[in-house]
Design brief:
alpha/beta; Rossmann fold; 8 strands; 27% helix
Length: 362
C-alpha cells in the first residue's frame, strides 16, 4: 500500500501490519549540529565544512599512510567501515537534509505575521502581487540555492567530498527548483552518481490547510523536469491535500518513517550507497530528525544539515509497511482578514472561524 494512492482520511492513517520494522538512531559526535552547544539560529553550514567536526576516527588506522586525506575523505572511509563491520540487518547512511530556498509563502508570512498568515492568508492562493499556492522561489530563495551550489563545488574541489549516491526531492515546486539550482552544473568527481533526483510524495512538507502545501499535478511536474524520475504510484492530482484537514506531528512522523524505509535496505548494494541527499522542507526535516533521534535543529531557508543515521531492521519480512493509525485534525480559520494578529489571531465578529475550504475572490 502506498500513501500516494490514498485519500487524506485513509492516509491519516489506515495502515497495514509491518512485514518488518526499522529502528533509527543518530550517531552523534561527527557533526557540530549534533551538539547541544551549537545554536541553530546562528549556524552557517558553509562556514564550517557542513559542520563536520575535525577529529580522528577508528577507521583512520586502515588508510594508506603515504597520502594526505581530507576530513571528508576520512569520514567517508569511517562510514564505509561501519557498514562493512555491521550485520546485514544494520545500515549506516549520511543524510544531507536540505531545506528549500525562500519561497513566496515564506515572504508572505513575514509580511503578514505568523498568526494572521496561519489563520487567513495562508488559506488563499495569493494576493494581488504574489502567488503562494505551491509557492515558487523568490530571488532570495534562488540565491540561497546557488549559495549551496557554490559550497558543494568548493567541498568537491577542496575536500574531495563524496557526493550523494542517491538524490530525493519533495514534489512541491520550491523544492524541485532548489534541488535543480543546488546540484545542476557541478563538476562531479569521476564515478559519481548523476544528479537525477527521485521525486517522492512522502518527503513533502507537513500537509496543512495552507495552499502552499497543495502540490501541482504530476503532468506539471513532468513538464518542469522531464528527465527526473517520479516514484511508482505517484498520483496525477494531489490526493493528500483538501484544505480542511491537516496532519498532526505524529501522523507526519509515521509518513517520514515510511519514507526513510524506502531509502534504507533498498538493494544488495544499499550499504555502499551511503550518502543520500533529500531536498525537502523545514517541517518535514524536523520530522525526519525526530524519527532518527536527532536533537531539534531548525534550518533557515536554503540551509543543509548532514546526519549520520544507523538503521536496524527488525523482523524477517521482505517489505517495510507502516503499522500505525494516526488521525488528522480539522483546522479552523477566519473567512476574512483578522482584526488583529500581534500575538494571536482574532477573526472579525462577522467572520467566525470555519473548517471548510476558504474560497474568495482576490
Amino acid at each position: 500500500m502506498k500513501f500516494s494512492t490514498l485519500s487524506p482520511a485513509l492516509l491519516g492513517l489506515v495502515l497495514s501490519v509491518q512485514a518488518y520494522s526499522v529502528e533509527y538512531t543518530t550517531e552523534t559526535g561527527y557533526f557540530l549540529q549534533d551538539e547541544r552547544s551549537t545554536d541553530a539560529s546562528t549556524f552557517d553550514y558553509t562556514a564550517v565544512n557542513f559542520g563536520l567536526i575535525n577529529r580522528t576516527y577508528p577507521a583512520d588506522s586502515h588508510l594508506k599512510k603515504h597520502r594526505n586525506y581530507t576530513q571528508w575523505e576520512r569520514f567517508y572511509h569511517q562510514v564505509q567501515k561501519l557498514n562493512e563491520d555491521s550485520p546485514k540487518s544494520v545500515e549506516y547512511k549520511v543524510l544531507f537534509l536540505g531545506r528549500h530556498g525562500e519561497g513566496y509563502h515564506n515572504a508572505a508570512e513575514t509580511f503578514y505575521g505568523t498568526p494572521a498568515w496561519n489563520c487567513y492568508w495562508a488559506e488563499l492562493d495569493g494576493n494581488s502581487t504574489a502567488t503562494w499556492k505551491d509557492a515558487t522561489l523568490t530571488s532570495a530563495g534562488i540565491a540561497q540555492a546557488l549559495k549551496a551550489n557554490t559550497f558543494w563545488q568548493k567541498e568537491i574541489t577542496e575536500q574531495r567530498i563524496h557526493t550523494p549516491d542517491n538524490y530525493f526531492v519533495s514534489p512541491l515546486t520550491r523544492t524541485l527548483q532548489t534541488a535543480n539550482y543546488t546540484f545542476t552544473g557541478l563538476n562531479l568527481p569521476d564515478g559519481s552518481a548523476d544528479f537525477k533526483p527521485l521525486i517522492k510524495e512522502l518527503f513533502r512538507e507537513g500537509i496543512s490547510i495552507h495552499t502552499c502545501d497543495h502540490r501541482r499535478s504530476k503532468s506539471h511536474i513532468t513538464n518542469l523536469f522531464p528527465d527526473w524520475p517520479i516514484e511508482n504510484g505517484f498520483s496525477e492530482e494531489d490526493e493528500l491535500w483538501n484544505g480542511v484537514t491537516a496532519e498532526t506531528s505524529s501522523a507526519q512522523d509515521v509518513r517520514s518513517s515510511t519514507a526513510l524505509s524506502q531509502v534504507f535496505f533498498t538493494s544488495a548494494s544499499s550499504k555502499k550507497e551511503a550518502f543520500v541527499s533529500v531536498t525537502s522542507h523545514s517541517g518535514e526535516i524536523s520530522s525526519i530528525l525526530r524519527v532518527v533521534g536527532h536533537r531539534a535543529f531548525s534550518l533557515s531557508t536554503g540551509a543543509v544539515i548532514p546526519v549520520l543515521v544507523r538503521a536496524e531492521r527488525k523482523g524477517r519480512g521482505q517489505k517495510p509497511v507502516a503499522s500505525s493509525s494516526i488521525a488528522w485534525t480539522a483546522s479552523a480559520h477566519c473567512t476574512a482578514p483578522p482584526v488583529t494578529s500581534v500575538s494571536a489571531c482574532v477573526c472579525p465578529s462577522s467572520a467566525v472561524p470555519v473548517t471548510t475550504p476558504l474560497v474568495t475572490d482576490l
